[in-house]
């Protein structure tokens, strides 16, 4: 393997892998991944949906711009989403309706027709999003890893970065070898600020937040795999059919340090209890649980762009819970910015404001 590259991307999750795949078409690119395989942390622990009405304004624009590539690549399977709003969540309901694009308020009776297990009296309002879909996360991630290899990129797993030094170009030290590049892309997920500090940057205040998931059996005799994804507009629980089971999450966002995440049993129990308040189906058994990290900048928007020192350090972190659903567009945008090109017109047409994702907002 080579030691000298144009670009070294740190992190092989969906953000790093997808951006690296595009960059490798025009640059000599390596990925340094600290685990023994790509996507071990957040990307490999996602119940991702394509939800074009979910996220901060920049993520809404990026997700909507990602739609055509998702559908053309066969990475989506249609699944509607229904959001329920009990009386105490009127403010969240009004906010959702103010930001939505293409969603439809439906009667509670219609919601119950589509989701028969809705508990009578739980919801005052219901909102249908008919533009959502399941994402085949593994297929998407493998697509970008394959494209990366086809474009000549080099993957270096079990290469946790131990030091970054600026001496003309960048020197990247790992336990096993030393690599060099003109440009560093920090796509380290929850460890994004750790990598930035190695490079002599001021931390932006990236905060990893844990989300827990329970896998439970669905109701016997019910074709529950045809159910929509359901949840409350206040984001205190959601439920999604997947792989012949039901995934239930308390939708928590508990601040934690970067680590190999696991589910919090007490938080899961509380989330399942809230789910059961909304449905007339009793969860009697949890088959397994898992946890993942979603990492946010202080303002909830991603951090994408060159550091203001203009020394080849590029930020690509803070995607929160929207990194997978936005990745086809965000990766094209990041690659264009790394190359010094204009951002893709189709992304800007969705209303993206570059200043809202620029690292300069933290300068």
Automatic annotation (TrEMBL):
Highest rank taxon of the organism: Bacteria
Segments forming domain FAD dependent oxidoreductase: 6-337
Keyword Oxidoreductase: yes
Recorded GO CC terms: cytoplasm
Molecular function in Gene Ontology: oxidoreductase activity
Keywords: Oxidoreductase
Record's protein name: FAD dependent oxidoreductase domain-containing protein
Organism annotation: Aestuariivirga litoralis
């Amino acid at each position: 393997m080579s030691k000298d590259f144009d670009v070294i991307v740190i992190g092989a999750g969906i953000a790093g892998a997808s951006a690296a795949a595009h960059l490798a078409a025009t640059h000599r690119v390596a990925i340094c991944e600290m685990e023994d395989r790509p996507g071990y942390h957040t990307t490999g622990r996602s119940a991702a949906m394509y939800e074009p009405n979910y996220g901060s304004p920049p993520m809404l624009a990026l997700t909507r711009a990602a739609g055509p590539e998702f559908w053309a690549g066969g990475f989506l399977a249609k699944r509607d989403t229904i959001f329920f709003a009990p009386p105490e969540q009127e403010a969240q309901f009004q906010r959702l309706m103010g930001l939505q694009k293409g969603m439809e308020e439906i009667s509670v009776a219609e919601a119950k027709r589509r989701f028969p297990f809705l508990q009578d009296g739980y919801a005052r309002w219901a909102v249908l999003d008919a533009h959502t879909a399941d994402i085949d996360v593994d297929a998407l991630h493998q697509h970008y890893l394959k494209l990366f290899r086809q474009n000549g990129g080099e993957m270096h797993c079990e290469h946790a970065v131990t030091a970054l030094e600026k001496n003309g170009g960048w020197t990247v030290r790992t336990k096993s070898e030393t690599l060099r590049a003109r440009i560093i892309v920090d796509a380290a997920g929850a460890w994004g600020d750790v990598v930035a500090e190695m490079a002599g940057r001021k931390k932006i205040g990236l905060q990893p937040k844990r989300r827990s998931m329970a896998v439970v059996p669905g109701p016997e005799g019910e074709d529950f795999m045809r159910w929509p994804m359901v949840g409350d507009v206040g984001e205190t629980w959601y439920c999604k059919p997947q792989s012949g089971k039901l995934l239930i999450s308390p939708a928590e966002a508990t601040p934690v340090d970067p680590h190999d995440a696991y589910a919090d049993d007490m938080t899961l129990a509380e989330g399942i209890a809230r789910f059961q308040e909304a449905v007339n189906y009793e969860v009697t058994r949890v088959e397994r649980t898992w946890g993942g990290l979603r990492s946010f900048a202080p303002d909830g928007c991603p951090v994408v762009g060159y550091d203001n020192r203009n020394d080849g350090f590029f930020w690509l972190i803070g995607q929160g819970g929207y990194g997978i659903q936005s990745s086809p567009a965000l990766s094209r945008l990041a690659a264009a910015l790394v190359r010094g090109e204009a951002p893709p017109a189709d992304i800007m047409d969705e209303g993206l404001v570059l200043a809202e994702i620029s690292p300069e907002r933290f300068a």
